[in-house]
Amino acid sequence: MNIKILAEQLNLSISTVSRALRDSYEISEPTKARVRAMAKQLNYRINPYASSLRRHRSKTIAVLIPEITNNFFSQVINGIEYIAQEKNYHILIYITHEDVRKEIEFAHHLHNGRVDGVLMSVSAETNNYDHLNELMESGVPIVFFDRICESIETSSIITDDFESGFAATEHLFQCGCRRIGFFGLFEHLSISRKRYEGYLAALKKYGINKDDDLIVRSGNDIAANEAAITKVLTSANKPDGAFASIEKMAIASYNVCKRLDIDIPSQLKLISFSNLEISTLLNPSLTTITQPAYEIGKQAAMQLFRYLEKKLYMNRHEKIVLKSSLIPRQSTKKTHSA
């Protein structure tokens, strides 16, 4: 018997059952009573060792991120560190390298009381969240940022991905593009789905039919990403504009265009989500949707400490949405042919 089966029998989320068994102030008394009764009926027992571990503070929080080379995550960590230092806490950084197996391994490792809480952005491969529910069951609060898990009841810090995806696509249209490609992450990821939905909404607004041949989904293999972009940019109906929903697809696009002697922006206009400090130094400079990464880190850390300091009450699992900025540069500049 485990908490997952118990939750299924009750038709409740794992995190709700876990909090009810721990007599959390966030759960109503009738729900607590129902959970305890079912737990007794099914002979479910809370692990007392895990519970005792959670009564102690390690003064450390973990940060799980999919990659460190992306400047966005570096800035987020700076924001987290600022708040952690104010609270006299240390941070441990775990990098999954977009590998869900590593994410699961790290989550299991953090069951042992090593940290008091977790801040995380899920890997591109993550589409099952049992390991994260189990971590929260053990008493470790999780706050998500950027790439979130919408099925877990906890706080999350995100940006206006739908609106930004719409704005990026609209910007390309206003710069003269009529065949606009979308280069993004796996569709199950929250950020990719919202950005893609914004892209589709903008196409619809301007009467442009979606063309699946202009859609590229990225993975962890750089060569495979560039091969997929090459196929699109050498097709008979190649795009005249592209929206890269993640930074690495923009860099891959620059590499492909250089190799194929495709001129940016006269032959292909390009915009990307990116916090690259070198965006202005690229040739041509890259038009970006820039997220407030430092502020995301600060807000995520502050939200986690509200959990740790018991300052969040029932129905206070907040989704905080911060606004990104569109910064036009040379990669989408209007040309005489546009």
UniProtKB/TrEMBL annotation:
Source species, domain of life: Bacteria
Pfam families: LacI, Peripla_BP_3
Domain HTH lacI-type: from-to ranges: 1-55
Record keywords: DNA-binding, Transcription, Transcription regulation
InterPro entries in the record: HTH_LacI (IPR000843), LacI/GalR-like_sensor (IPR046335), Lambda_DNA-bd_dom_sf (IPR010982), Peripla_BP_I (IPR028082)
PANTHER family: HTH-TYPE TRANSCRIPTIONAL REGULATOR GALS (PTHR30146:SF109), LACI-RELATED TRANSCRIPTIONAL REPRESSOR (PTHR30146)
UniProt protein name: Transcriptional regulator, LacI family
Native source species: Parafilimonas terrae
